[in-house]
Amino acid sequence: MQTLHVELGERRYPIFIGSDLNPQQLLEPYIHGKQVMIVSNDTVAPLYLEHYKTALEKLGKTVATCILPDGEKFKDIQHLNLIFDALLEAGFNRDCTVLALGGGVIGDMAGFASACFQRGVYFIQVPTTLLSQVDSSVGGKTGINHSLGKNMIGAFQQPQVVLADMSQLSTLPDRELSAGLAEVIKYALLGDEDFLVWLEANMEGLIARDEQLLAEAVYRSCAHKARIVANDEKEQGERALLNLGHTFGHAIESYLGYGEWLHGEAVATGMVMAADLSQRMGWISEADLARTKKIISRAKLPIVCPKIPLDDFLGYMAHDKKVLNGQLRLVLLEQLGQAIITRDFDVELMKQAILVNQA
Ligand SMILES: NC(=O)c1ccc[n+]([C@@H]2O[C@H](COP(=O)([O-])OP(=O)(O)OC[C@H]3O[C@@H](n4cnc5c(N)ncnc54)[C@H](O)[C@@H]3O)[C@@H](O)[C@H]2O)c1
Ligand SMILES: [Zn+2]
Questions:
Q1: pLDDT tens, 179-201?
Q2: In which band, very low, low, confident or very high, does the pLDDT at 321 lie, cut at 50, 70 and 90?
Q3: Taking a C-beta distance cutoff of 8 angstroms, is the pair 107, 142 a contact?
Q4: Atom 12 of ligand 1 has which residue's CA nearest to it?
Q5: Which of 15, 68, 168, 303 has the fewest CB atoms inside 10 Å of its own CB, making it the most exposed?
Q6: Residue 323 is part of a domain; what is its CATH number?
Q7: Where NAD(+) is bound, by residue (predicted)?
Q8: Residue 263 annotated as catalytic
Q9: What is the whole-number distance in angstroms between the Cα of residue 106 and the centre of ligand 1?
Q10: 31 and 128: one domain?
């Protein structure tokens, strides 16, 4: 097992990464009070709920559960309220802990519920998708969707501890595994060429779910995110680098309708567009661009998106949160392994980068 710390002063917390982790032993020091609410969904609960419930009961905790329907479309205020119902019906007090057992949807909802219930109770993350292990469980952003916008209502809420168990990835659907790998590749492209070389050497093993390789990929990804978050918790600057591929990706997701393509798949093609524009700007070479596409393809991710009319594409990009004072800022690559946030790019070249990477 490897341990990583997210350095946030007195809110510093550990991420435990490994296989067949022992929740009883690892969670015990981080649970304040006697009451634990496990929030999960109806896909993950049948697989893993009993394991955690038993471990917590062995620690003498009063365990209650709230099982939500599976899906991004339930990441809304109605279903958030079901968590509050469960907490109140169980008679939980301000000393309780909310434990998220699931992917990013459950992590975001349970985290937000824990930030609001009684003005804030303790929170623990047990992410069960690769994406949530390398991305959403680190950094403290939590929230729900509104019918007028994704992730529009939320709070910063740091967990006490994160438990990332590679064994649980064995049941993850192939597409979800690849979607998580998109965010892993993102860390390499934006800040770590050595990691890119490592991914190039180990991609087949990752796809085959070698747990040791997965643990290494999660560790290195979380280390990047943890460092960036520690420097810039509230996204005033550097944290925006984590949006590499995301402005293009959001346009793809929005046009196709959420649910059609997975987030990671859209980000994958978005990263190709960002790399393509960086190459057109003369910052990275054609070989670098080819290398970017190759590693994304090897992760079984798409490198082109369906035909999307340019006006629609640009319209969705303009709606992205990264637009500051009406000016689009993009995360682009100065080199492979070094991203920058910039307004200084040629819009015509950006349009070409979008158009050539469509089917
Ligand atoms: N807070 C953040 O910083 C942050 C960052 C990135 C993404 N997110 C959010 O995370 C969400 C996406 O997360 P996700 O990709 O984990 O999706 P998800 O939570 O919907 O999980 C994907 C699917 O895998 C299933 N699943 C989860 N673990 C499983 C397992 N071990 N075995 C079998 N099936 C399993 C889920 O039930 C679901 O059907 C989005 O809502 C996004 O907004 C948040
Ligand atoms: Zn993402």
A1: 999 999 999 999 999 999 999 99
A2: low
A3: yes
A4: 104
A5: 303
A6: 1.20.1090.10
A7: 70-75, 104-108, 128-129, 141, 150
A8: yes
A9: 7
A10: yes
